Amino acid sequence: MARTAGSHSDITGPKVREAALKLFARGGYAAVSMRAIAAEVGVQVGALYNYTPDKQSLLFDLMEGHMSDLLAAVQDDLSGSATARLQEFVAFHIRFHHARPDAVFIAYMELRNLTDDNFKRIEALRGQYEGGLERILRDGVAAKEFQIVDTKIATLAIIAMLTGVNTWFRAGGRLSLEEVTAQYWEMVRRAVT
Amino acid sequence: MARTAGSHSDITGPKVREAALKLFARGGYAAVSMRAIAAEVGVQVGALYNYTPDKQSLLFDLMEGHMSDLLAAVQDDLSGSATARLQEFVAFHIRFHHARPDAVFIAYMELRNLTDDNFKRIEALRGQYEGGLERILRDGVAAKEFQIVDTKIATLAIIAMLTGVNTWFRAGGRLSLEEVTAQYWEMVRRAVT
DNA sequence: GTCTATATAGCGATAGAC
DNA sequence: GTCTATCGCTATATAGAC
């Protein structure tokens, strides 16, 4: 309305992030040029630098945003049994990751393209998320609901298994996400008891 | 001996592949230049093209070589029980992948940098390997050793879980590879029975 | 806020001398 | 088989006009 023609900071900013997310996931950080991102947004390359100081910050912001969303969304109702908490974690992990495949892909594939400092910050967030699962497993062992020799190994094994769903599951296929979740939960449940 | 000075095709060829393997694993295919590979080998960039027609072929040859090695090494002794065959598969997968972390990393991370044709060929090899595991699971279900709703899902879940070992296990740490293998086998065994 | 133009650097691949 | 030199192109990032 009272806005200067050509001024679109509130629109272009999110569009830059969306374009980078899509293109990084498709082609890889190193292979995607700032020109390609600008073309996807519909501006010239110089305009991108109103929204990010450089390409590295763009990558880091995407990964940090994803990990923050993940940590904000995960819940752990301590009043339930460890088994119930683990079942909720499995369902949450599959559901959350399925809903944002591009961000998940980038978070796993582009770690090595982060600077050392940025890498440490992302790894710390990842450690926090893993800690949430391990706490459930340890509580389950203490309550004699689970039999697990090493809860750290079990944590990593479960997360690797669950995240793998994103590499093959596509909606509209032979199975629904609910069926897939039920079968993964059954495997996880057996593996820890 | 009777060799022309400066002629080192039998030495340089493998060194080019080794250098590319190491650098691709560390920095990613797109981020590694032919100049960087030449420097790692100790030659000038022009010399590389005596050993590969282009950079893409270098990547494909590494990935195809890895998958061929994997398929040649995996064994399935059909005379054993499905449980014994699965245990051997778990131990083999962890052992084989642990021995060549760079090749494994590239095989998973650089798929999107393959041309369409090359991608299809690598995916076919991967499908062959997964088929070997699924055959064990199906036989185990038929023999009532395993209870699995969907052997395809179980195949993908088990492989994702086992391959995840490479992302965190380092020799000389808290646990030996044998101990890790034993714990993964315990989780897999429970998950399918 | 976006544009065009440009600085500076590096890329994959090839040609031709030795 | 390896080297040096080079072609043609693209990269990130910045400067200054509007």
C-alpha end-to-end distance of chain A: 62 Å
How much of the sequence lies in strands of chain A comes to: under 5%
Could you say what the CATH architecture of the largest domain in chain A is? Orthogonal Bundle
Q: What is the helix content of chain A? A: over 70%
Secondary structure blueprint with pairings:
The structure is a homodimer of 193-residue chains.
Chain A: H1 9-27, H2 34-41, H3 45-48, H4 55-73, H5 82-99, H6 101-109, H7 116-142, H8 151-163, H9 165-168, H10 177-192
Helix pairs in contact in A: 1-2, 1-6, 4-6, 4-7, 5-7, 5-10, 7-8
The first copy, chain A, binds a DNA duplex (18 and 18 nucleotides) through residues 4-9, 12, 33-35, 43-47, 49-50, 54-55.
Description:
The structure is a homodimer of 193-residue chains. Chain A has 193 residues and is mainly α. Chain A has two domains: 9-52, Arc Repressor Mutant, subunit A, CATH 1.10.10.60; 57-192, Tetracycline Repressor, domain 2 (Orthogonal Bundle), CATH 1.10.357. Chain A is built from ten helices and no strands. In chain A, helix 4 packs across helix 6 (101-109), helix 4 (55-73) runs parallel beside helix 7 (116-142) and helix 7 packs across helix 8. Chain A is elongated and about 60 Å long. The N and C termini of chain A lie far apart (62 Å). The model of chain A is unreliable at 1-5 (pLDDT under 50). The A-B interface holds A 26-31, 109, 112-113, 149-150, 153-154, 156-161, 163-164, 167-168, 175, 180, 183-184, 186-188, 190-193 and B 26-28, 30-31, 109, 112-113, 149-150, 153-154, 156-161, 163-164, 167-168, 175, 180, 183-184, 186-188, 190-193. The structure holds a DNA duplex (18 and 18 nucleotides).
